[in-house]
Specification:
Blueprint: E1 4-6, E2 10-20, E3 33-44, E4 50-59, E5 70-78
Antiparallel strand pairs: 1-2, 2-3, 3-4, 4-5
Amino acid sequence: GFELFFGPRIVFMPNAAFGAYSDGDSKDLGSTIEFRTGVGLAYRFDDYSRLGLAFHHISNASIDENNPGTESLVLTYSVPLYKFY
């Protein structure tokens, strides 16, 4: 992922990742290999903390016949690491 700033306050964050998934007692996503794509939009405060929304889609990109996928919409609040030292 990376960040695009629109002025000093608004941050747009597109991202993509891949990984391994095991459903356990949760949703069967059709494959062990899964891909996640998403975007986030956040407001940056004076102390560099951020409040935002992120949307992600996870699926196996049709590498298996079963590809139900799942989406998430997440409210985020992040604090820079320098606040802890």
